[in-house]
Structures are given as structure tokens and as C-alpha cells.
Amino acid sequence: MAKNFDVVVIGGGPGGYIAAIRAAQLGFNTACIDEWKNKDGKPAPGGTCTNVGCIPSKALLQSSENFEHAGKHFADHGINVSGLALDLAKMLARKDTVVKQNNDGILFLFKKNKVAFFHGRGSFAGPSTGSGRTGGEGRTEGDGYEIQVTGAAEETLVAKHVIVATGSSARALPGAPFDEDNILSNDGALRIPAVPKKLVLIGSGVIGLEMGSVWRRLGAEVTVLEALPTFLGAVDEQIAKEAHKAFVKQGMKIELGVKVGEIRNGGAGKGVSVAYTTAKGEALTLEVDKLVVSIGRVPNTNGLNHEAVGLKLDERGAVVVDDQCRTSLPNVWAIGDVVRGPMLAHKAEEEGVAVAERIAGQHGHVNFNTIPWVIYTSPEIAWVGQTEQQLKAAGVKYKAGTFPFMANGRARALGDTTGMVKFLADATTDEILGVHMVGPMASELISEAVVAMEFRASSEDIARICHAHPSLSEATKEAALAVDKRSLNF
Ligand code: FAD
Ligand code: NAI
């Protein structure tokens, strides 16, 4: 017997589980299907973000930063540490515990909100008419879809609305499939059992820099090979330059403009050889213990059986949606990494909430101009809105103000003075067009800029707001003051 639902969400990552909870809050009879299982085969909702993305990477970034501080920076504070030792197994186990707490939290939230959870793969079996008939004939807007669940749960669900939230997976390099032993995706990179002596990461994007930082801090010799000639091309140039300087000073080798050639996987315990050509045309080969490939991600649409209902995909395999997350089919929506736009957990969540509200006839909205980005390295990099190079390219007249953390009392007290805050404001109206940061706790500081831009504030609005002293947020106020060249502490 098929089970009927108002809303069925396929995928329980941050997009899907949040969409399901919001739909249930709005009074819909809601189900969420997710196939992720932990190493015991038990349900592990939360998707890439919870299992092999945001959460475990931040756990390891924190642990490895603590290790580096204890070894290199505590002495500056008059704290001498002797016998410092790394217990990597414990560090990885702690990360797994943090992940499990999040998985369990989501299962609890499903129960609390009366979302029916099905552990397995969800795929389209075909359209279903309101009268219970299946098949394409006589379909109307009011009819639904039949979804087959296979795996731990075997069920047929009938849904009036379907939200596809199946996420993304790591892209492999041609000829170098992931074995998660020598050639690692983000998954393997989060569970290397012993610190590799030599580690290469291909792609100096977000994962390359975050995972490269983790393993460098724990003792690996890290090289990052990047195809593009510019470092972090999407980041404001001035900020990217500052970050590049900091990473190189920390000992990370970053080679830009390379062409990666043959990759030879030596097999268990034998490492990998990576041939590449440098920007100057020199042919080199690196022999390393482990290789992480972090060259972007591909949408997960393989298991959906989208052909059964004619759901349209684009040439990358992403589900085609409009700016409201409507797909080519009535009452089928898609959100998060499986559609266009930045692959970020909070973007997926916002789309999930907006879609549930649109299903309820409300006016859910996602403002793509104010989605923050954060790279959780040290220094952290965070931004919202437009970069200086984008404004120049668009011919927008702007004013810029910067303030270095070196001149911020709290940063000096913390012993972490790398970086700056940068404001870009419209030359005529003073409206904030972009805020860019590299430095301590940029991940937290960026929220103020997001709120300001959401309310279309001017740089003067921020400059005139009282900020606690001493705090890193004073650097934000000072950068806003600097837009009109009236910074007080620099
Ligand atoms: P996903 O999280 O990928 O979830 C999709 C879920 O659907 C998965 O559980 C999958 O198993 C399931 N699924 C797929 N197909 C089916 C099917 N047919 N039936 C049932 N279930 C199915 N973003 C940030 O904002 N901040 C960060 O700090 C951050 N760090 C990251 C670190 C790493 C290493 C990686 C890889 C990514 C990181 N991201 C981060 C990106 C973030 O993880 C994604 O943007 C986010 O998870 C996308 O959410 P989603 O719900 O669209 O998809
Ligand atoms: P990315 O898109 O951030 O970076 C990929 C990099 O690889 C680019 O610089 C690209 O030029 C380079 N590249 C591509 N092909 C290459 C090749 N053949 N040889 C050498 N370099 C090559 O992708 P990444 O790091 O895999 O992360 C995927 C996505 O996951 C991110 O874009 C982001 O959306 C999300 N993510 C977010 C995080 C956060 O918010 N803190 C953390 C980690 C991931």
C-alpha cells in the first residue's frame, strides 16, 4: 500500500532536512528520504555537510589549530608546553562523535516535527493521479508523483509535492578514480589514519585550503596544485593576496597555473606519483603519500530515475530550476547543491525554507546578493556582496575603506593580527556593496555585514553604530569609517 504525503523530500542534507522541518511546521504531512548510512549501517541524515563536509572539517580544523597553538604559539603567552604529542586516532574519533551528535539531532528534530523519515534511496517511479491511478494520462496540476524507496526501507510513497535535495559529490580527475586510500576525495581526506609525510592537494579552492591547513598543522608537507593562474579568483584580490601571503608563510606550497598530467596510484602503502607542468612549462613529478583531489563537485542526480517523469537536467547533470526553485515539472522543486548557485549549506537551507513556504502559498525569498562565504582557514576568509574587481568590471563607481587587524586592540591581545576588513560602498549613495575580511574570527564578523547589506545600510550606518571595546568587530566599524577616510585608530 502506497503511503500518501503532501510533501516528500528526497535527500536529508541541510537543504532537505530543513525543507522537511519547515514543511511540517506549516502543517503539511511530510516525509524525508535519505540514504546516507554510518559505518554501522545506521541512518546518518545531514548529508555531505554533516557527514563529510562542514561539520567534520570544522571539527578537524579546530583540533589541528589547537595543536598548532599549543606547539607554536602558547610560548608567546608564557605557557611552556613539554611532551606535546598528537593522538590522531582520538582526534578523528572526536570528529566522528561531533558528526554523530549532529546525525542524532536531525533524527530527533524529525520526530519532534512529525516528519516521517525513510532510510533508503528515493527515486521517481512515475506520476500519480489524484485518484490513485499511476501513469501520465490525464495528469493535472493537482496530481502527484509516485516515489519508490529502496534500501533499508522499502516503500512506495505518493506525494503532492516533491522537493529534490540530493546534493553533490566530489569530482574525480579523469584516470584517477578515488580509492579513499591513496587518492582521496573530501571523505578520505577527513579520515587519513596517520599523518602523511607528503600530501598533495589538487585545486586550491575551499576544500584544498581547509584540508591542506588541517594536515599541514598536524605535520604533513603540503603542496597545493592549482590550474588557474590566480589564487582564489572569486575572492576580492586584495584579500586573496593577503591570505596567500599568510598560507605561504605557514609553510604551505601553492603552485598556480599548473597542468596536472598523469597520476599513478602505487597501491596500498606505496603512495601516488603526480606529474604536472608548472606555469613556466617545467615538467615535474611529485611522489607523495596521499593525494586529495578537490577540483569542485558534481550534482547527485544518478539515483533519481528522473527519466520516469521527464525531470529536466542541464548539461552538468544539475536539476534545472528557475529563481524560485521550480523545476520543469509542476509541484516538483529542487534546492541546494543539486541546482545552480553556490554550493553552500546555508544557501541550501534558505532555499529549503523558501520552497516549503511557497508550497504553502507564502512568499519565501532567498537574497542571493547577501549569501556570505567563509573559508575556515587561519586566517579565516569571509565575504559578502561584490568584490572590487567585479565592481570595476561592471563600471560601478565605489569608495573603499580598509582597516588592518594589526591596529585592533583585541586582535593584539589575542596574538592574531594578520589581515584586514575591507568595505566597498557606492560612491554616490554610500550603500554597502561588499564587505571582505581576512583575519581572526572573520566567520563570525561577517554576519554584521550580511545584516547591514540585507537592510541596504550605508557604510556610515555601520560607522555610527557603537561597537564593544575591545572587540574584533571594532575593525569592521573602523573599515566603515575608512570609506570616508576618517578611521580613528589607524
Ligand atoms: P547534501 O548535503 O549533499 O545532502 C544530500 C543528501 O541526499 C545526502 O545525504 C545524500 O546521501 C542524499 N541522497 C542523494 N541522492 C539520494 C536519493 N536518490 N535518495 C535518497 N537520498 C539521496 N558549506 C558551507 O556552507 N560551509 C562549510 O563550512 C562547508 N564545508 C564543506 C566542507 C567540505 C569538505 C565539503 C565537501 C563541503 C562543504 N560545504 C560547506 C558544502 C556543503 O556541504 C554543501 O553545500 C551542502 O551539504 C549541500 O546541501 P544539500 O542538502 O544540497 O546536499
Ligand atoms: P572549489 O570550486 O572551491 O575549488 C576547486 C579548485 O580546483 C578551483 O580553484 C579550480 O580552479 C581548481 N581546479 C579545477 N580543476 C583543476 C585541475 N584539473 N587541476 C588543478 N586545479 C583544478 O571546489 P572544492 O574545493 O572542491 O569545493 C567544492 C565546493 O564545496 C566549494 O566550491 C564550496 O561550495 C563547498 N565548500 C565550502 C566550504 C565552506 O563554505 N567553508 C568548505 C569546503 C567546500
Give a verbal description of the structure.
This protein is an alpha/beta fold and 490 residues long. It has 3 domains: 3-51 and 96-169 and 298-366, FAD/NAD(P)-binding domain (3-Layer(bba) Sandwich), CATH 3.50.50; 183-295, FAD/NAD(P)-binding domain (3-Layer(bba) Sandwich); 370-483, FAD/NAD-linked reductase, C-terminal dimerisation domain (Enolase-like, domain 1). The chain contains 13 helices and 22 strands. It has helices spanning 14-25, 47-52, 54-73, 88-112, 186-189, 206-217, 237-250, 345-359, 388-394, 409-414, 442-454, 459-463, 473-483, and strands at residues 3-10, 30-34, 116-119, 121-128, 144-150, 155-164, 168-170, 183-184, 198-202, 221-225, 253-255, 259-265, 272-277, 283-288, 290-293, 297-299, 332-334, 373-375, 380-385, 398-404, 420-426, 432-439. The strands form 5 sheets. Strands 1, 2, 3, 4, 5, 6 and 17 form a 7-stranded mixed sheet that branches. It has a 5-stranded parallel sheet with strand order 8-15-9-10-11. β1, α1 (14-25) and β2 form a beta-alpha-beta unit. The longest helix is centred in the N-terminal third of the chain and has 25 residues, at 88-112. The chain is globular and about 70 Å long. Mean pLDDT is 96; it is low at 131-139. Residues 10-16, 33-36, 47-49, 53-54, 57, 121-123, 165-168, 186, 207, 300, 303-304, 336-338, 343-346, 348, 376 line the site of flavin-adenine dinucleotide.
Low-pLDDT parts are 131-139
CATH topology of the largest domain: FAD/NAD(P)-binding domain
Instruction: Write down the overall geometry.
Output: globular
Helix content: 25-40%
Percent in strands: 15-25%
Annotated CATH architecture of the largest domain: 3-Layer(bba) Sandwich
Write out the CATH superfamily name of the largest domain.
Answer: FAD/NAD(P)-binding domain
Largest sheet: 7 strands, mixed
Bound molecules: flavin-adenine dinucleotide, 1,4-dihydronicotinamide adenine dinucleotide
Pairing-aware structural class of the strands and helices? alpha/beta
Rounded to an integer in angstroms, the radius of gyration calculated over CA atoms is 24 Å
Ends apart, CA distance between termini: 71 Å
| Domains (count) | 3
Assembly form of the protein: single chain
Count the helices. How many?
A: 13
- Classified by CATH, the class of the largest domain is Alpha Beta
Extended strand count: 22
Mean pLDDT value: 96
